[in-house]
Amino acid sequence: MNRRTVLGIFGAATLLPGAVLAQRPAVPAVGFLSLLPEATLREQLNSFGEGLAELGQVVGRTLTMEYRWADGDSSRLAGLATELIRLQPALIVAAGGNVAAAAAKAATSTIPIVFTAVRDPVQDRLVASLNRPGGNITGVSILAEELDAKRLDLLHELAPSAGPIGVLINANNPTAEVQRGALQAAARAIGRSLVIRLPGTPEEIDLAFEAFSAAGATGVIAVSDPWFTSQRWRIVEQATKHRLPGIYQWRQFVEAGGLASYGPSFNEAYRLAGNLSGRVLRGESPATIPVLRPTRFEFVINLKAARTLGLTVPPLVLARADEVIE
Length: 326
Prior knowledge:
Largest sheet: 7 strands, mixed
CATH superfamily of the largest domain: Response regulator
Helix content: 40-55%
CATH class of the largest domain: Alpha Beta
Radius of gyration: 24 Å
Shape: elongated
Number of strands: 12
Number of domains: 2
Mean pLDDT: 90
Distance between the termini: 83 Å
Strand order of the largest sheet: 7-6-8-9-10-11-12
CATH topology of the largest domain: Rossmann fold
Number of helices: 13
Strand content: 15-25%
Low-confidence stretches: 1-24
């Protein structure tokens, strides 16, 4: 073997690893579009990662994530969705209810989309049906209006009174009137009147509580809405200030000092969204992946908040709680 042959073999050998690396396919990117700020979803992002891992997907190993946070400002979602589309991700995850899902769907009809917690994806025209969504989108539904009515019943039991109940509905939510109608029907069924306010800014939340107090409200309910989740500290602070027993959609409100919450497990909703994302990444079409619904529901009561409000929780109600925070 002459010197030229040896050098040729050596040169090929030294080039081979680089050539192999160049041929390795890049890991897919997943875009994450959120109406909510990052700080609100840290725990849920862990659950989303767990759901991915159950399908063999690991962030940083088999996929990368590109995050876009609207920080509670729905007007930013369209622009952020367009930013993600330019990156040509393998999948877009839409977090923050129907408005984030709608923004993602409006931005692309080809890139798969998984939403994390939408009130009614059929009524919101995101999917054709729950069993066969069609198109490029599927996700997790949370039964919003049905649960708002259930929360009203629970508040009536937690704080029995003939007085009106204050209701917070996000003015910027396209389904605000649907939520209003559902709660009015539920209130008539239990013989209670409502004082409804539709804040669209944090300052308007404060004004809503002033209106509740002026009307003699004896309790408050914040309807299912991702923006209210991002404003939970302000809402709970106002409820405490005005001595209004409140019930909310997620346990995060109770952890922030609220009286009670009833709803599906927020963490489970994100774990299920992680499962769906894993299925899409392994090649399944969103068109044929059924929309999922959480199966775990949590009724959480904060007894410290009850004491602060001067409220004695009825023993029968306390016995039905899944968790009691002392």
